[in-house]
Amino acid sequence: MGCCSSKEVNGAASRTSRWRSTGIVGLRDSKLKTIPNDVLDLERAVRTLDLTHNKIVDIPLEISKLVNVQRLILADNLIQNLPLNLGRLQSLKILVLDGNRITAMPDELGLLIRLERLSISGNLLSCLPETIGSLRSLQLLNVSNNKLKFLPESIGSCFSLEELQADGNSIDALPLSICSLIHLKSLSLNHNNVNQMEGFQEFESRRKKKFDKQIDANVMINSAGLDEGLDLR
Description:
18% of the residues lie in helices and 10% in strands. The protein is an alpha/beta fold. It has a domain at 16-73.
């Protein structure tokens, strides 16, 4: 027993040392119900935290200690609420929360000013906070398969947005501000109730013309569905 216990301690210490040296913490499919304290205690050392496919229900307030984390991946868990101090993760660039039970995003989301990719598909969201407009670095927003009835007017302030995925909601109208998204390459609204708004057809025509020119000039574009335009069903 003593020998086995010693090996377990040494193994845990080795794992923690590896996390600290690489900055990458990967605990996929580990049957976790909470974020381990030995991960949170790494604080500034963590740059990537991947806890996909566990049984995590709550994100502890201590998550704010990971001030240098750039990629936070919590897909396929049982998360219902996000801590209000999530906005303290000022280095965060990628946040993945797909396949949880989240009903609302806190206003503090808008404090994540370096965020480039936000994916929260397959949750229970009925609306997005107006503060999402503060995410000026956001390039990808995936809110597919939620319960959204509309997108906030402030989304037009996400000036860097290139890809907006909102399939499988109950959206019946688009905000006028969406025409301000001059870098938008892909807009996906399948399985909603959207009717085209005034001025959108002109916007869509300009958008396609712009990126068709880039393709003709052999500019590499990595967004899927560029030529599909908007499918209103």
